């Protein structure tokens, strides 16, 4: 990631995990600096309804005496989805990570936040049902809990189509 093409943008929202106000700094690629247009690069930790690849506008604001770009609104959704994976038992973390890493072969992006939290970005072109099967297998075996804070329309259609074919 070349620093000059990326900026940290502050996202201010109510966390769906902690139910508290969050100021989360996420990396975004500068699309048009003059108009404050960015493309999200990072995966939101706390479940904000935006996914990597989404195009958004940010405005400059002063926070604690420093000027920052602060998220304003999304202008174009990428069709990518986000899954939050929680590993409740540390004993399972290595096996879960190895299983989730197989999803990188499907071009999914995995971001390990801690020993028990992993974020997964699922690109638009990936069949979401294939990813969901891997996640569900881990959940059924009680190795993980997970949340799907943002599932794109295309990925929702992947799930519905798989249900129709069963």
UniProtKB/TrEMBL annotation:
It comes from the Bacteria. InterPro entries: DUF4265. It holds the Pfam family DUF4265. This is DUF4265 domain-containing protein.
